[in-house]
Write a structure and sequence with these properties.
Elements lengths: L12 H13 L10 H43 L1
Length: 79
């Protein structure tokens, strides 16, 4: 099961279009594995996208933590 395809996935547009085209051209085969190659490609792309987003968010959180610590140290010095 993959996330909704209507959400913007800039890195995965080509594989999303391939899966949608497969579903459009093989309306019944999609239920019995006719689009498994496209599905595997989209799953791989989404995993890569999620890993990239996770790394970006972690870096942002670390920067925020560092800024908080600096601010906290300056507050402690004032007390």
């Amino acid at each position: 099961m993959h996330p909704p395809l209507k959400r913007h996935h800039p890195d995965c547009q080509d594989v999303i279009k391939a899966l949608q085209m497969c579903h459009a051209t093989k309306p019944y085969m999609k239920f019995v594995g006719g689009c498994n190659d496209e599905k595997a490609a989209i799953d791989h792309c989404f995993r890569e996208e999620k890993a990239r987003m996770r790394k970006t968010n972690m870096n942002r959180a670390r920067r925020n933590d560092e800024e908080f610590e600096k601010e906290w140290e300056s507050i402690k010095k004032e007390l």
